[in-house]
Amino acid sequence: MTQEKKITVKKQAYLVNDEIADNIRRLMKEKNKLFFNIMGSIGAGKTLLLERLAEKLSPHYKIFVINGDVATTIDADRIAAKGATTVQINTGGGCHLSANLIQKELDKINIDDYDIFFAENVGNLICPAAWDVGAQMNMVVVSITEGEYVIKKHPIIFKGANIAVINKCDLDGLGFDSGTLVEDANKIKSDMEVICTSAKTSLGLEALIDALGIQLP
Amino acid sequence: MHEYSLASAIVEQVKKIAQEHNASKVKTIKVSADPYEMVIPDLLKEAYGIIIDELELFKDSNLELLILPAEIICIDCDYKGEPSIEGDDEFAYNFRCAKCGSRDTHLNIRHLTIETVDLEILE
Questions:
Q1: Residue in chain A nearest B89 by alpha carbon
Q2: What pLDDT digit, counting tens, does each position of B87-99 carry?
Q3: Are A149 and A67 in contact (CB under 8 A)?
Q4: Which of A126, B77, B88, B113 is the most exposed, fewest CB within 10 Å of its CB?
């Protein structure tokens, strides 16, 4: 004999991910660490920006970077060469990092050995927006070469961001315009910090470090 | 294609619920989603089908998705509820506040939620 039973659940599908993410955030806060989630499109300059941040910050802080990519260890190798400790997650077909993937990497290290943590998410302006990785701040990087509509076309990821970085601004005026992107970012989320950078020339790097709340001696 | 991750998260949670209730079969799972959570219903169902393909507990089960009305939080007046007007071509997700008319609003995205699970239980 069988009977049918309806169970009221009312639980988020993300619950497991969000619980892990909340634990990571709590742990980082307790230990007085900083953890940033860097999202952005493919080729926006996330890795070069992290190389610049690693160069600038690693003389003063111990940096740990978790890189997410479908394949290769190119990004982790590049950033490691600039003074950070890095680990590469290959997601296979996965289009985003998750709290579980971050937790697995944190389990392999002693968190006390580091001061500042970055997750470089998989290059994608859609899926990473939906997955909390446990960071204290979310940053989205786009570049002015991606076209003037790139922010308007991907509003959700900006709605959840604390900082929008408009990169490759060394090309501003050379057929590309940062002004429209800055304006769009401000219109989409008025309380989001918007910073123009060039990872190539280090333009805006200090403003970005300031926005991340990192103090340099 | 984060629908696969979502479908997988749903199945993992429902597996636990089924175990807790000594269920022999999962019949129907009802989930709700915000219209702006970027969940494509057909892809979610397709991913669900792939994941449960070899799971006896989930054989012939259905995943039903209910799309909720949009909800906003107004930065100017703190209104929380349905917008008066959704976004426009210019700014697709800057909805108009139903109380003060401001376009300076945040979307209050309700994450994909498992509402109910119908189980078959052996007596």
A1: A152
A2: 666 677 778 899 9
A3: no
A4: B88
